[in-house]
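Researcher: Good morning. I'm working through a list of sequences from a screen, and I'd like to move beyond sequence-only analysis. For each chain I'm collecting a predicted structure so we can compare shapes side by side. This is the next one on the list. No need for commentary yet; just the structure.
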Amino acid sequence: MTPRSLALPRGRSLDLDGRAVVMGIVNATPDSFYAGSRVSDVAAAVDAVASMLEAGASVIDVGGESTRPGSEYVGADEEISRVVPVIEAVRARWDVAISVDTRKAAVAAAALDAGADIVNDVAALMDDPALAPLCGSRGVPVVLMHKKGVPAHMQDSPWYVDCVGEVLDFLLSAADRAVAAGVARDRIVVDPGIGFGKRLEDNLALLSRLDEIAEPGYPVLVGLSRKSFIGAVSGAGPDARLPGSLAAACAARARGATIFRVHDVAETVQALAVFDAAAGRPILPSAG
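Model: Good morning. Structure tokens for this chain:
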């Protein structure tokens, strides 16, 4: 059974009680694939977060390294300089849950010290051997995502025999490794990694069989917003993929997704609230 809440630092928690949780994306990067998610400075980040919270976001996800296909590695010092001032500014103003999107222990430690609550790792704690023990010792929730290869080359002819089965096996093994490093099992979230080393058919299979990823009971996070598989289906560029993003979010919700990492908070909150109401589920709290 999926936990009803996710324990956060300082005695706080994130309510998962049957509700969809919307995570707003703040990219403190110059090269993330969707320009609308990038913030140029701390003031712009604070303005973006204020709008997201007014629209109903429950989590703010701050990243300082693009992991889009073809992206290059960013050093820890540079990444820290990008994310820590944003996290400090957000934490100074709001008590919202903050996740740091990083695969580096040094960045995660600095972000947690600055007020972050969750480590969201596209490498499932595997790229940096110090990250899992850090998360265990700090008692924070972690998002474990599946990817194949490294971002710079992950879309170079990825191949699976059974993508869904292989992704599920990977995530369960990653969860076991996290627990062995001291992460509490009820603080683990899994992410199938839509678009990370997957072909179009793999992404669509993961969406259509997402209930298999959810079945073991870990909360499932999905990042679908404006991704290239939507363009492959619709022919739309990143700036025109909002309708497809909302359709994908509702499809994922129908098959057990709990947390939605998105660029367009207001639209996603509304779409999921109507979808959940029609399905007889608890709906998101009203924004504003």
